[in-house]
Amino acid sequence: MAQRGTNGSKVFVTVLYMAAVCSSVPIGDLLDRASQRSDKLHSLSTTLTQELDSHFPPIGRAIMPRPSMCHTSSLQTPNDKEQALQVSESDLLSLARSLLKSWADPLVILSVSANTLPHPAQSTISNKLQELQEHTKNLGDGLDVLSGKMGPAAQTVSFLPYSGGNDIGQDRLSKLANFHFLLSCFRRDSHKIDSFLKVLRCRAAKMQPEMC
Amino acid sequence: MKNMVVVGVLLLSLMPHANGAGFSPPGKPTLTSCRSPEKETFTCWWEPGSDGGLPTTYRLFYLKENIETVYECPDYLTAGENSCFFSKNNTSIWVNYNITVVATNELGSTMSDPVDIDVMYIVMPHPPEKVLVSVLEDKDWPFLRVSWEPPQKADTRSGWITLVYEVRIKLEEKDDWEVHLAGQQRVFNIFSLLSGGTYIVQVRCKPDHGFWSEWSSSTYVKVPNYFHRENSVWILITTFTAFIFLIVSWMIHMNRHSLKHCILPPVPGPKIKGFDKQLLKSGKSGDVFNALVASDFPPTTPPRCEDLLVEYLEVYIPEERELMREESKHLQDGFLKSEGFASDSDSGLGSCNSHTLLMDNSGEAKETDRRTDQERSRPGAEALTYAREDVSPDMSSGRVKTWPSVFSPLTPYSSGPTDQPGAKQHCLSDSVYPPGSTSPCSAQDLGLNYWEFCFSSMQPHLTQTRSDVNVSDIGPERAAARQQSPAPRPTEYVEVQRVSEEDMVLLQPVGPGPGPPARPGEDYSRVKGVRGHNVLLLQTEEEADGRACEELETKGAAHKPTACSHGGLPAPGRAAPAASGYVDTAMFVLPSC
Lengths: 212, 593
Hints:
The complex is a heterodimer of chains A (212) and B (593). Chain A contains eight helices and no strands. By secondary structure, chain A is an all-alpha fold. Chain A has one domain (27-211): Growth Hormone, Chain: A (Up-down Bundle), CATH 1.20.1250. Chain A is elongated. Chain B has helices at residues 2-14, 227-254, 256-263, 277-282, 285-292, 318-330, 339-343, 355-377, 387-402, 411-414, 416-424, 458-473, 476-483, 572-578, and strands spanning 30-35, 42-47, 57-64, 70-72, 83-86, 96-105, 108-111, 115-118, 129-138, 141-149, 163-171, 178-183, 187-190, 198-207, 219-222, 494-499, 505-509, 526-531, 535-539, 549-553. In chain B, the strands form six sheets. In chain B, strands 3, 4, 6, 7 and 8 form a five-stranded antiparallel beta sheet that branches. Chain B has a four-stranded antiparallel beta sheet with strand order 12-11-14-15, with no helix packed on it. In chain B, helix 6 (318-330) packs across helix 9. Chain A: It comes from Betta splendens. Chain A: Belongs to the somatotropin/prolactin family. Chain A: Keywords: Disulfide bond, Hormone, Secreted, Signal. Chain A: This is Prolactin.
């Protein structure tokens, strides 16, 4: 694992040099932009969760599914720093892309149910959800560009289907509970993406140590 | 197993007290906070409840996501009292922890409320370290450069944790902090410092999605004194400004007059001829305006006929004034019939040479007479007309009766000749022969548009004779006709338009003006022509078209007037201009004396 990591970092540095020779935008800048977007994405999801929490019945937490029930939990991601720093850049990017792509459909379902959400801050939630979708799409496009520059290993994407169906609940309580649950899953995954990209950014900034 | 532990604790809590001496199971503890300084470890603190008087132990248990095993806190000591420290090996990120604290004493146990935490949400780093503040010079204006290091534990190099910083500064003696966000950089410059002041600087940091750290310890810095240099510059500027101000004020003082003219231009004085400013200043406005009144206006001495384009009519009716006074008493408010004036639209002044005006005037006079008669018939009708109208009714009627002829009564006219010259001075020529002079005047002397008469002592009787002749000559029918003649016409003058070579005098009626009061309402004949030396062909009024004419002899010669047999005029062309005019037959003397 460690060997792979060092080899991977060497390859990465080589790729970076090659990228630097070319006249296109350097990967470091691309990663910087990507990490800024992911930062914004996570902030949005945090705000959304707090909005929902403002008028959330306590009983709803009891019936909320456990976080391990997130549809992306099947994806193996590093759980601490040591693990994370040992993952190669391509894998990190692949993980980020996989997570992001897995949320495309559920976000649509969320935004649809947000229109009829039995919550006092329903309109704010709906608007923020729209913003969330836009940012997700933008970040996805950016990561696709990055993956194209980082070799074939970065191109692999794990497929994580959402099995929750189109309906998030029948009654008001289950609707709210499921909505809250989905958002918390997204919040976590957006944090993962953000962390991975920032690790990648600092790795690519060997020539610019002041960035990290 | 967890369930068994829980049940056991519950049973213990429900067991009765060992003794009722005030001891009780422990109170419920509370998890106050859990924090991770570097996203690699974390610590949880709790608040114990009442211990119930007995020694109480506290234990922390936690559950990790997807793992059924209940774990106990691995380290109760590192983080101090009532804390639990989770080391790196025990810390997983993106994993949900369910933590509970249990307080146990002899009498029982009490569990706290469980708390769910995820390490990614509880990051609060240590404050930045090695805060250095230095004073640097920038063109004699010093500034502070603050530099620091991230907290030691935080791994920013690998990008695992990203920190943003904040700097705050204040004067030592003040209370307000000046806060600056520094972003991800580790150096910061502060400008605009008070010279000689002592400042306190502090720095803190925050992860991208976490809590702010505590402020670093205060760093004191003293700014050197640079005020004296500042002062000298101000002194220089002040002196320069004062100098310029002095120069400008001196210049203004030197040019104050022209400046005054420029800013406050003098009011132009009145440009009225004859206006005396001094008089105005003295305050007698009456005098000022009287001075404006030209003494020679209207001109009392008649100007030359050539000078004036307007004809000047003189009015001499002494009785007129009395009548005028009477009339004025009857004047209604603002009602001034000025039809009389209308005929004299030029206030009695007409062109000496203007034929049309004279013709108009004569025509108007006729109408005016009729009108004025009508007015008089109307009670209370006021007519501020000139004397002839006013005077004529009283006298003319008498005279008409007395003299049922066209010709106006001559008796009053006898006094007329003396006035005549004056009245005749319508052109006001200097060459008017004075009345009563025996100087010969020939037709050639006339060079003026003037009918001049040589008055001799014969005149009065001449007129009488003429009038007699008139009366005798004019037949009764004529007299009747004349009686029926329209309202007495005012005296009209004739002026000679031109003197022909054949000793013919072309007469032109002068504009109807107020004639001498002696002869109001006289009728006149129109001169048809002149024949020979001393014959004037006259036209009666009814025969203005020249059906008949009369011959009148002049000069008092006992020439019998022969009726005009011919209807033609000896000089039709010449008579034409005079056709509309009238001649005062009484005045008729050819200038052959």
